[in-house]
Amino acid sequence: MSEVAGFRMQGMTRLLPLLLGFAVVSEPASAIESCVSSLKKQAISSGVRPGVAEKMLGGATYDEKVIRFSTSQPEYNTPIWDYMAFLVDPERIADGKALMQKHRSTLASIEKRYGVPGNVVVAVWGIESDFGKFQGDFYTPHALANLACAGGRRAKYFRGELMKTLEIASRGDVAVQDFRGSWAGAFGQTQFMPTTYTRLAVDHDRDGRKDLVNSSADALASTANFLKDAGWRNSRPWGYEVKAPDGYSGPEGLKSRASLSTWGKRGFVTMSGKRVSGETEAALIQPAGKSGPSFLVTRNFNALRSYNASTSYGLAIALLSELIVGREPFKAPWPTDNPGLSRAQRWELQKLLNQNGIDVGEPDGKIGPATREGIKKAEAKYGLPITGRPAWNVYYALGGR
Fold it and tell me: Which of 5, 64, 98 lies closest to 324 in space, CA to CA?
């Protein structure tokens, strides 16, 4: 999983120990050795080539980081304006535009076959792995082995994902060494879980392999197939930014759908002031509350969220998909006087912290515990509220422009 995807999963998806049902394993190092041996036998008995099972599970050891990621609530709750500033920044927009041109013919054939616009597919690609640049920190067979051996009611699920991973490699679709991805087992340029891969991955470049790691064409087409399966229809957009009537207190949320004309009768207008109309069903979301932007979203938005059940995630894809084809950004401002920073600004922030005597290590644009602690020290030094957020106030105080 990319830093983008890691940020998404850790910041927006809260996987609590109770939810996951993991048990705390005593003597984890010795316990996993016996468990992995059992997993190898199961894989081979189900048809996985013995050499593949050995290569992919040999050397698997207890990984504290995998277990910690899967059982602990994230320390850092990300405001949507930070999330959007990081994921939909000038660099990602420029890269997306360039890739739209580079893969123009491939995207056209994908849209014709699956009915999903190229800009939407490219936006998912950008959010999931920064267009394939960074597909993950973990060797997924070892990560899944840890999760399968951790015990609890989710162990069976992760065991199943591991078996599918081994089967994919045994068929030769993805090379044994190429399973780099998330701690939860997702891999490839658009981060498919193994069971999702088995059901929806396609061989678009017709080389006989469904390779979502090394083939951009396969990854993009598989993503389009995923979105089609999730309910995307080209006959409707993902949604619309709208203005809510003053004091609106009516239906809200993805379960409260009505025709656009009904929303118009409730007082909703476009950003240009025209009453909303039409028979397309939509739901109202106000991700930053009533003082922030409002959107009427269709079931296509639900398809975007099927990748990750987060409104912020869905909006990041939606906004990026608009901007990489030259459409306008959201017009209503986020309700904050301390907005978030782009990736380039985050890198600059780390550089400024170091220059101001607050050591956060080599700047890389990734905001981990050391950087957050450094930000808190800088905030205290300059009399700012202590948040640990990579935001404009502390960036400006340190000399950023």
Answer: 98
- 137 closest CA partner among 277, 283, 1, 295: 1
323: Cβ contacts below 8 Å, ≥ 6 apart? 88, 93, 96, 329
Query: How far, in Å, CA of 335 to CA of 287, rounded?
Result: 11
Whether residues 303 and 351 share a domain: the answer is: no
Listed residue (233, 226, 231, 230) closest to 212, CA to CA? 226
Q: Same domain for 296 and 352?
A: no
Residue 162: both structure tokens together: 């591991």
- At 246, which CATH number? 1.10.530.10
The pTM of this model reads: 0.90
Q: How far apart are CA 139 and CA 185, in angstroms?
A: 8
Domain around 278? 239-318
Instruction: Tell me the per-residue pLDDT of 187-210, one tens digit each, with 9 for 90 and over.
Output: 999 999 999 999 999 999 999 999
Q: Is residue 43 part of a domain?
A: yes
Digit-coded pLDDT (tens) for 343-377 = 999 999 999 999 999 999 999 999 999 999 999 99
Indicate whether 9 and 49 sit together in one domain: yes
- Judge if 70 and 175 occupy the same domain: yes
Is residue 23 very low, low, confident or very high in pLDDT (cuts 50, 70, 90)? Answer: very low
At 70 the pLDDT is 87
How far is residue 249 from each of residues 244, 252, 286, 290, measured CA to CA in Å?
Answer: 10, 8, 12, 9
In this structure, is residue 202 part of a structural domain?
no
77: pLDDT strictly greater than 80: no
